[in-house]
Amino acid sequence: MERNLTLIALFAALIAALGLIPAFSLGFGVPITAQTLAIMLCGTVLGAKRGTLAVLLFLLLVAVGLPLLAGGRGGLGVFAGPTAGFLFGWPVAAFVTGLIVERWRSANLTVVAIIASIIGGIIVLYAFGIVGMSIVLDRTLVEATALVTAFIPGDVAKAIVAGILTAALYKARPQSVLSRTDQA
Questions:
Q1: Global pTM?
Q2: Ramachandran quadrant class, 61 (left: phi over 0; alpha: psi -120 to 50; beta: rest)
Q3: Which of 26, 100, 101, 151 has a Cα at 20 to 30 A from 93?
């Protein structure tokens, strides 16, 4: 139990730390950040439940006003802005990513983690982000979808990095990748 709490807090801190990397803001208010890499890693390393809890802890800290999002943003207002859909999608993305890695044990971990990160950390997350942008920016779903295409190359690169890092951690310390242990 204590180890789980420590890892959940550590991965919430990882999300915050990746927010320190300067964001590249796009004209429609949604920045390109490194934080989605941490969301993918929450799922691939911690698994579905613990990964989701790490993201929820991070979002709670943001909600109480800590400036942990890229660009030093925080507070309840971010949950009503153009990024709101992505923020609400983060816990679901971590859960789906983790669930895939937990259940799909027959293939190479690098490949599984990359595919899980693409499905959970890109496809699922974009679904939330597109709906949120459509509502907040008063755009059609097609227009909002066109806006997020700018994220695809970077997010695919992040999914590859997440897969490589997860497999490297598993090779070095198998018991640290909870998505692949019996504790998942």
A1: 0.94
A2: alpha
A3: 26
